[in-house]
Amino acid sequence: MLRYEWRVSFATEGGVKAVLSCMQEFPTVTHVQQLALATLKVITGASKHDLRSVGSSVPLSESGTQMMLEIFASIGSATPEGSKGLLGAVPAAIDLMLQTKGCMLSVRNGLLVIIMLISNHKSLAEQLVAAGVTATLKKCLSLSRAETMLAIIALNHISMVHKLESKECREHLDFKDTELQMLVVSLKELAATKEVIQTLEQLLCDDTSQLEDQRSQVTHSRDTYQDLVRLIEQHRADRAVQLSILRILNKFLDNYEEDMLPWHESIEPCLSSMTAFISDREVVQLFIRFLYRLASLNKDYAVVMCRLGTKDALGKALDKHGTNLLLLGELRDLVTDCEKYASLYKKMTTSVLAGCIQMVLGQIEEHRRSHQPINIPFFDVFLRNLCQGSSVELKEDKCWEKVEVSSNHHRANKLTDKNPKTYWESNGCTGSHFINIYMHKGVVIRQLAILVASEDSSYMPARVLVLGGDDPTNINSELNTVNVTPSATRVVLLENQTRFWPIIQIRVKRCQQGGIDTRVHGFEVLGPKPTFWPVFKEQLCCRTFLFYSTKAHTWCQEVLEDRTQLLQLFNKLNSALRHEQMFADRFLPDAEAAEALGRTCWEALITPIVHSITLSESSAPSPLSWLLSEYLDNAESARRCKSRAAIFNSRVRRLTHLLVHVDTSRPDGEELKPPVKSKGLNGSKELKNSKDGKNKETAAASSSSSSGQAKPKVKSSSSIAGIALCWQGVVQRQVKKFLESSCSLPDFVERYRTLYLRLKNAMEELFGQQTAFVLALRHGFSAALLHLSILRAMHVSERFAQYIDQMVQASGAASGSVETLERLKQFLEPMLFLSGLELASTFEHFYRYYLGDRLLAQGNVWLESAVIDHIGSCFPSRFPQQMLKNLSESAELQQEFHLYRLQQLDRCLQEHDQMMEEEWAESEEEAEVQVLVLSPRCWAVSSLCFLEEPANHFPAELCSYLNQFTQFYTHSQSMYGLSHSKPRRLQWTWLGHAELQFGCWTLHVSTLQMFILLQLNTHEEVRVDSLLQATGLSAAVLLHALLPLITEDGPLTCSSPEDPTQGVLRLNQQVASRSECGVPLCVRLLPRQTYLNVDEDAAGTLERKRSYVYCLIVHIMKQEKEMHIDNLVFKVLDSCQKRDASRSPGSPGSGPVPGSGSGSGRFSCSTSDVLSCIMHVISKGCVRRNEDNPHIVEFLPEDPSTPQKGQAQFSFSRAGSRTDADSSLMSAPRQFEDGVLDTVLFSMGRTMTQEEVRQLMQRTVQQVSGTLSLDLDRAEHLLVHCKWNVDLLVQRYTDDPDALIMAAGLRSRNPQPPAPPPPAPCAWAPAAEPRSRSQHSAACTTAASRAGRST
């Protein structure tokens, strides 16, 4: 109902008559009358006359209002003579509401309806007077002020507008005095409507009324005069109101007395209104006559007119109407004669103002220095007058010079006539309509808005683009884009701009409903403050900044000399801020002035202090870093209240709370920057800026040298940014120290969790939970982890994955507690710091390994999904997520297989209808079996676990199920392969778990343990070596599954417990008897989780891989000189794949640690690995990024004058073995990346001795041997063949190792053709699940069987 205009249609169809008839039918029912009056108020749109809720509802349009009044008039004219008719129901309803308690709202609704009906229709007024409305209105004169005002307005229309009261009735004179007083009060307290102003005009300007004393009192009232001046601005677009106010002001001017009223305040509103109605001769004539009278009475007002641009306004009127305007020439002559006085007034005001400002600023500065009270009389009043105007807006016609439009230039003045009913209409194609506003020089826009109207329909703008420019040919800086809603009337386009734009362009890009031309009813511009507050603010901020910045630098020097003085900063800062707060509370008039002073004081103090205490010129920590470190060291002892540590930490907390509670950066920092005038201040600002630049360079250098991580995402110029960066450094040092000292301890991860909680709690105590410090905590941890060596990083990653594995298993056990889950949750928070680091790939590898063991041993549990969801960002390849998804897909496949078996059973029964039911009943119950179909893309399954033929190892019942599943899977794959790639097949493995019935007990075992136990169903004793021969597994794998079975409480015994591989397995009779006689029990015999041993060999293999990639990058860049980084990545990956393909196919697959297999292993690397190596080569100075195009990398050529410039500084891993991996972690870690090519960079500044040459040759041989995985003899032979040119050797070996080896004579050419390669293990045969055809490509799939319920 708000969206569509329904009221006229409702009234036309008889709605109004129905409401009035209802009121007449139930005259004594209060609720009916209340609802009826409220309905009539809505239907007639009478809310616009409500003094308390102007604009609360949508009024009727002019045509709608006229139609509504005619409908009411036709209803009243149909009333027989002598009868009140239907219209009489309205006054009768008001009488009933007056007699009913608590119905004042309904009385107000009725009065509004009465005013609506009689204000613009004399016939309706006559009909209502005949219905007795006058008596009802007079009863309302004794009500509250709002209702009395409405009654007075209605009676005024009846008696004075329509002249309907009879001459015999003199009662209306009895309330004239009260009416006048209430009208005057309503000008101030209520939103004065048009009717109030016109009624006041009639009472004041009617010479026949007998209210001379009251009129004289009103016309001398300063408050009433100022209210009228304010209403000129408020009702600028209403011609009738302007004329009424102007007549009232002329009445005031008739009783002119010197200095009685501030007449100068009315000049500017009158000029604005005259400009708005410049085309209306009558209005312009009345304004000119009023201004001429005012200038004739006192020439001071003529001076004010001269300063406000009256001459220009008169010139516009003369151009518009010629000489037809009376008194225009006389007024212009008066203003011209006063121009010299206006100039003298301006100069005198400027001189007096400058002297006053300097005096005030001097007193303020002396007050700051001496802390003595200011005892100058009226100083507070004077200062408040200086600050007056801080909340005043510059009027829009003072902001711009001229306006240009895209078309229909003759209607451009409609944009500035202040009349919302007129508009400028464009003419052109869609998107070509614009308005150019030329701003006065230096005016910064505080707000820009346009006026639109929903009645314009398709002409109404829908999307507006605002552009700024310096000249008409260069308007291309986009400032804002606004979408206009269909119901909007005033659309704000710009707010609080920070720079001056000479030209602002408003471009209409699209109209509502796809319209072409557009209509704009006007625009409004608010500029900066018009008073001398900006000047005083500039000087005040300048002096304040100088004073406190000097004091701050003094404090900084004290802190640099003695860092314990840092604890005294809180008292000093607090004292200074409290002093300024007391000054602002006493002298400054409003919040804006106090905020300007406070922010300047804060910036002057905090900016140099933060820069000084957060940076250190030497290698020693900065003062704030020292303070925060001491706080962390005292955290434990500070728990005792009143101890020295507690007092120290309390002071630290108070200081940090004060430093970070307000940030010194703001988006509109230009406005708040202390102004620069004098030469001395310029020097100070230059010094401050140079410090800022130095701080930024130092911060950037420390960031790049420490971790390469981004700083906390706050503005670099803010105080919080510097403090957060300092906190990041403290966290990094704490974590780095902890990792170096505690990495090899058994409870390392628990200590790591405790460290994180301690640092997190300290952060919240010191800084709260601000985003900048949360990010700094994260970046500190990340930077410390990035400093780990490769071996230690792998060790830490494995310990993290191992701890999560232990917590998950402990939570799933019967003894799991809420405390365990809480510890796990606390540890997962710092685990997120691995996200985005290279360390995350290593962690994902170990986590994937342990997750696979858990899932295959105990199935999927809810905690696994929760943990992976929480730390999912730590898995770059998303292997854990894919593993869980693979399990769900396998469950769907198992359900499909179940349906498939039911279909096969139904078909079999249908073919054997004659079979007796007894024969079916005698068949044994099948074991419950499930098959997990795993994808090798996410599951790390070693070929050592492959099971070639399940029928050779398991009972027929179990094998029958597996055969059926194989047929089902093969059938589904063959159907899938008709339209896609080659079908995939299953590769069975020994992985999985089972449940076996052992008497009354249920044994939870692995698939391999199930195989061992099932052997004893048919044999009394089984030799272990026969099991090894039957399974083909290694002794370590078999013993790992066997040991839980031959424990004291296990179901089996072994004849040789010391060496089970030589023993014989038998059934444990004691345990068997207990299982027969005991209660049902679940016994878990699953093998314990085995954790990987991150030894030096694994790290060496990984380091050789990294060194090879380093050398490959340098080799490629030497050839290409310059290339896109993506092309470089693809080229390195292609070379790695070729090298992997050239390896012998018999090499083992991937082990638990990448590349830990025997021999050279599989050489696979990902895109993230190559990118990491490229970043490392860039950091070492071998290649660099192009400054203009950062995605282009360039090779840096050798510089003979600087031997190490342009060379990659890497190190090769040395082939030394250590027996104790943990002890190697305790020693100083070898820096694998200290310089791979040091050995090829011969000294160019002197001649080497023979011993130095010999040592260099040995190092070169060892490093080339480690890099290319060659023995020392072969490496030396190849170096001799290549004349000790390492670059040439690496290049030729990378391109074709076999050709190089043959050329060097290390291998003879074999004339026999090479033997065909052995077939690939069936583990890598292609296979795919039917349920996930869209996800799987040609990747290989491994299948793990899970057997259960087998006896």
TrEMBL record:
<dbReference type="GO" id="GO:0031625">
    <property type="term" value="F:ubiquitin protein ligase binding"/>
</dbReference>
<feature type="compositionally biased region" description="Polar residues">
    <location>
        <begin position="1335"/>
        <end position="1351"/>
    </location>
</feature>
<dbReference type="InterPro" id="IPR004939">
    <property type="entry name" value="APC_su10/DOC_dom"/>
</dbReference>
<comment type="pathway">
    <text>Protein modification; protein ubiquitination.</text>
</comment>
<comment type="similarity">
    <text>Belongs to the cullin family.</text>
</comment>
<protein>
    <recommendedName>
        <fullName>Cullin family profile domain-containing protein</fullName>
    </recommendedName>
</protein>
<dbReference type="Pfam" id="PF24742">
    <property type="entry name" value="ARM_CUL7_CUL9"/>
</dbReference>
<dbReference type="InterPro" id="IPR016024">
    <property type="entry name" value="ARM-type_fold"/>
</dbReference>
<dbReference type="GO" id="GO:0016567">
    <property type="term" value="P:protein ubiquitination"/>
</dbReference>
<keyword id="KW-0832">Ubl conjugation</keyword>
<feature type="region of interest" description="Disordered">
    <location>
        <begin position="1140"/>
        <end position="1161"/>
    </location>
</feature>
<dbReference type="Pfam" id="PF03256">
    <property type="entry name" value="ANAPC10"/>
</dbReference>
<feature type="compositionally biased region" description="Pro residues">
    <location>
        <begin position="1311"/>
        <end position="1321"/>
    </location>
</feature>
<dbReference type="InterPro" id="IPR016158">
    <property type="entry name" value="Cullin_homology"/>
</dbReference>
<feature type="region of interest" description="Disordered">
    <location>
        <begin position="1195"/>
        <end position="1226"/>
    </location>
</feature>
<dbReference type="InterPro" id="IPR059120">
    <property type="entry name" value="Cullin-like_AB"/>
</dbReference>
<feature type="domain" description="Cullin family profile">
    <location>
        <begin position="795"/>
        <end position="1046"/>
    </location>
</feature>
<feature type="compositionally biased region" description="Gly residues">
    <location>
        <begin position="1148"/>
        <end position="1160"/>
    </location>
</feature>
<dbReference type="InterPro" id="IPR036390">
    <property type="entry name" value="WH_DNA-bd_sf"/>
</dbReference>
<feature type="compositionally biased region" description="Basic and acidic residues">
    <location>
        <begin position="685"/>
        <end position="697"/>
    </location>
</feature>
<dbReference type="InterPro" id="IPR045093">
    <property type="entry name" value="Cullin"/>
</dbReference>
<keyword id="KW-1017">Isopeptide bond</keyword>
<feature type="region of interest" description="Disordered">
    <location>
        <begin position="665"/>
        <end position="713"/>
    </location>
</feature>
<feature type="compositionally biased region" description="Polar residues">
    <location>
        <begin position="1201"/>
        <end position="1226"/>
    </location>
</feature>
<feature type="region of interest" description="Disordered">
    <location>
        <begin position="1307"/>
        <end position="1351"/>
    </location>
</feature>
<dbReference type="InterPro" id="IPR019559">
    <property type="entry name" value="Cullin_neddylation_domain"/>
</dbReference>
<dbReference type="InterPro" id="IPR036388">
    <property type="entry name" value="WH-like_DNA-bd_sf"/>
</dbReference>
<dbReference type="Pfam" id="PF26557">
    <property type="entry name" value="Cullin_AB"/>
</dbReference>
<dbReference type="GO" id="GO:0006511">
    <property type="term" value="P:ubiquitin-dependent protein catabolic process"/>
</dbReference>
<feature type="domain" description="DOC">
    <location>
        <begin position="373"/>
        <end position="552"/>
    </location>
</feature>
<feature type="compositionally biased region" description="Basic and acidic residues">
    <location>
        <begin position="665"/>
        <end position="674"/>
    </location>
</feature>
<dbReference type="InterPro" id="IPR056405">
    <property type="entry name" value="ARM_CUL7_CUL9"/>
</dbReference>
<dbReference type="InterPro" id="IPR036317">
    <property type="entry name" value="Cullin_homology_sf"/>
</dbReference>
<dbReference type="InterPro" id="IPR008979">
    <property type="entry name" value="Galactose-bd-like_sf"/>
</dbReference>
